[in-house]
Amino acid sequence: MSAEPRHPLLPPEGVSEEEWDAISEARAMADIAAGRGVDHELVVAWMRKWGTPEETPIPPEWLAQSGCPKRLKRSMPFEPISSSSTRRQRSA
In the chain, where are the structural domains located? Predict the structure, then answer.
């Protein structure tokens, strides 16, 4: 029986978490430099709809530019983001 595949966000076998963090950060910075990213305010506006009747899937164009699978869902429930909690985090 074959082993279950590792989650893509976990380090591959033999790679430390520190090395994986450095690799992930380098990939993220390369994506930003290449113009692959989504405006923070757009993401926040989308996330504020989580858990409401207006909740929508991840916009397909966000996935297309990231190379992620076409269908990606939130895998865990999150508390809605309130503007007061956002302000607290920014001022901290």
Answer: 37-91
Q: What is the DSSP letter of 6?
A: P
pTM for this prediction:
0.49
What does the alpha-carbon distance between residue 43 and residue 67 come to, in Å, rounded to a whole number? 17
Summarize pLDDT for 11-45 with one digit per residue, the tens: 888 999 999 899 989 988 998 888 888 889 999 99
Question: What secondary structure letter does DSSP report for 70?
Answer: S
C-alpha span between 23 and 12 (Å, rounded): 11
Distance separating alpha carbons of residues 54 and 56, to the nearest angstrom: 6
- C-alpha 80/C-alpha 49 separation (Å) is 7
The mean pLDDT value for 71-87 works out to 48
